[in-house]
Write a structure and sequence with these properties.
four-stranded mixed beta sheet; 3 domains
Length: 185
């Protein structure tokens, strides 16, 4: 059975010959660069890793690894397809914290702060609010951490009165009689 047939059977609630494997078919099913580099090292693959999404440090799963692990799904993400076609020499090499070599998408700029943490830079070379510590796995957006900025946790918690004021849609109450108890008293 081909990968396409396998995936089609699965999404149509039919029984394929095996469960389809998705490793990096989209960013949500991707694998972090550090984990991917450990898997590659374990199987003897010493190639540089392309980084599909630098903010989240999601690895591009290369064809050799797709074949080795019988992956059935390939990425069709328009946001990265332009980069995918470019040769490795157009990507930006960067030594990753764990010592492995990574390739950032063309146009990506990363600097370091005074503590040696990575800072994502904008197209003009200015620091953005995205930071990654030396022990981190992805860039955090620290925009809320700027001097003078604050977070008020109470602003994110609804009160009991707010929850009580919520009205359940009539169709839901009809379908679930126990739901009526929430609005009655």
């Amino acid at each position: 059975m081909t990968s396409r047939e396998r995936v089609l059977k699965a999404v149509n609630h039919q029984v394929p010959d095996r469960v389809p494997i998705d490793l990096g078919g989209m960013k949500a099913s991707g694998i972090g660069v550090r984990a991917y580099n450990r898997v590659k090292a374990r199987v003897g693959n010493r190639t540089s890793t392309r980084i599909w999404d630098p903010r989240f440090m999601i690895a591009c799963v290369d064809e050799e690894m797709r074949q080795r692990f019988h992956v059935d799904v390939v990425p069709l993400d328009a946001s990265s397809s332009a980069h995918e076609q470019q040769p490795d020499c157009d990507w930006i090499p960067m030594a990753l914290y764990e010592g492995a070599e990574g390739l950032l998408p063309p146009g990506t700029s990363v600097g370091t702060d005074v503590d040696g943490n990575w800072v994502m830079l904008d197209p003009d070379g200015r620091p953005t609010s995205f930071r990654m510590s030396r022990t981190g796995h992805y860039f955090d957006d620290i925009a809320f951490d700027r001097p003078g900025a604050s977070i008020d946790p109470a602003a994110f918690r609804p009160t009991f009165a707010d929850l009580w004021a919520l009205q359940e849609p009539p169709a839901l109450a009809e379908a679930h009689p126990e739901g009526r108890r929430l609005n009655s008293a």
